[in-house]
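step 4 of 6: structure.
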Amino acid sequence: MTEKRALALLQADRPGGLEWFIDEYTPYVSAVVRGILGRAMPEQDIEETVSDTFVTLWRSRTKVRPGQAKGYLGAIARSRALNRLRLAGSDLALEEDILILPEEDPEALAEGRERDEAVRRAVQSLSEPDREIFVRHYYYGQSASDVAAELGMTPEAVRQRLKRGRDRLRTMLTEGGNGYDR
Amino acid sequence: MTVNISELMENYRDDEYALFDPAADPAHIRALTLEKIALLGGYSHRRRHIGRALRIALIAAALAALLGATAYAIYQRDLADRVLEERENGLSAAYSAVGEAPSAPPTAAPAGAEQYALGTEGDQSQYSCLGKNREYEAQKAWHDAQAASDEPLDARDLLDYADPHRLNYGVAYGVLAEKLDTIAARYGLRLWQSSACYDTEAELLSALGLESFYPAAPDERHAYIAYDDGSFQISGASLALPDGQALGCNIIRAVRGTLSDFLVLGGDPAQAQFETYAAAGGTETDLALWPEGALLFADTENCHVTFWFYDGTDAGLTMDELRQAADSIDFAALDTVNAPVAAENVAADLEQDIRENPGLYPEASGKARQVYDELGDYSLDALLPEGWKYEGSSVGTAEDVAEHFERLEGQKTPGEADYYDMLTLSYSPEDSQAYATYQWVSLTYERYWAGPDRAVIRNGQAFQNRRVTSISFPVSYYGEEDLTLCTVGGFDGYCIQTDDYGGHVDSQGVYITWYDTTKELLFTLAAPADAFTTRQALDLAETFAASIRDTQN
């Protein structure tokens, strides 16, 4: 079955569509959730969150576009995992999560789509493997050591590349008309 | 000033990197998800057959998620009474399980739109797409009948996978199909017999003999399904207003004379605006506008037409723009009805799908239906002989593997289950990606898929008393030199070839292990040699062996 056919069945609420997405994307969604909850929550909470992600997909089935299901599911999974973490009184404990920008009028900080676009361009401007390391760490919440293990690198090398990514992001957000500079 | 990078990436979307959790169990997640959806009011045909034990387990999981493991343990003793009480009190546990606060489900349609009200789905209102006449009455009767049905459902009453009730209405059981037939007859309506999906809007329109009937905005329109009476649904369409604004929507055409089951969802009726509007061509439309969406209904001579817009007043949509949308639709063109879907084409399409995705159609098996459950899987417990156990484990070190093997070895293994192989592992103990799966499964001489807690079998006579052990690694564990692209049994995948683990044929059986090239999911096929009584099985082995030989050459 193709994703398009599965989407047609999902959106018509016919059997087989949602099941296809679950079978296809559970390992991915589970990896996203585990990256955020894995160290803080029991296995049962991880499964619940993965399942909740697919329930949300079903509830918002009309808004999924072809070819975007994976990114959409990843975003839902990330959001649900972070919510569950916050409900438990925890936060995503990432290394060097704070980015210090030049002191500016807070009103100058771009918001909404403009800000999201600046972040997207900053991430896309990174070369590989820096981009993957940055996305795995700051988007998927994987620890530096987990990223290192998955990519066959040392944690120190990962941290060094994360620093490069942060520097690039800071530059993109503060220079070149990305909505942050006034 | 400071910002959190992880928060900055809140709306980032990644579809580039292949994250993969080898411990994930799609079958388990599928069961959990479908039960939650059933409790939320979806997949209505499944709602009635949640077994008591399963229901308890599900809601227990929801409570556990709410309370945390420690608090959950305190409640375990009187869990059954508590969760059943929760169930009887409504759907609060289910709502909580999906992370949403319970809220009173809406029960009314907005003033003026009562004639479309059908029911609720979670916290959203359901609206019929069938206008104000007998088709709507029949659909309402069908939904009410499902909700009121208290008849026990028996797996032996499962309909064939190709039954039109099942294919087109999601009705899996004969007893419900009879209700559907009765209601259709009572209202003098026919039922859909077949349906087909189309890849492009052009294909859909061509099959229906339709001209373009609305100003389509440039978009990746997708998801087209049509029925044998000419009814159809386009999901993900985009209608362009005169000012260029694009309104994402679903478009539904329900042909008169059929009991169709199209419905749409609306928000809180108390916040809705509603009006009747005569569109530019003279067609009378009913318009409803919510903060989160909007609806446009029209009854034409031959059809009921619905446009379901994804955004509402929260996104700036106004009633005037909704009127403009109504003016732009060619209702006369939509009223041209041709029956596009030939049943034989649909049957061929279905057969192809079954061949390509046997896991989705386990009921195509000749396996006795009493061991088949409504979620589409065979329970391994049902397949195993009495006295046998099944265990799946995820482990990370060689020590873990050895420990599990020792424990499993101690289990009683009756019958002729004498094949057992302790594989020598080549992975390093610190490799947390490796995991082992131990399976005692019933095998079939044709295709099967066995996962940590289920087996899906089709077109084969299951036989038991065989034990299969596989130790699995994600594709990323292997080096390229260990992976060979091959096709086995119609599946493209990576054959794994290492000295101590991989596909081989010996006097005791055929053992094939490969990974899907795109999904990175393990496929293991293994069976005792005396099981291969069909030509296909031998061909499978030969195919595999040939691919190995080709690689070596």
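step 5 of 6: annotate
 - The CA atoms of residues 280 and 327 of chain B lie 5 Å apart.
 - The radius of gyration of chain B is 27 Å.
step 6 of 6: archive
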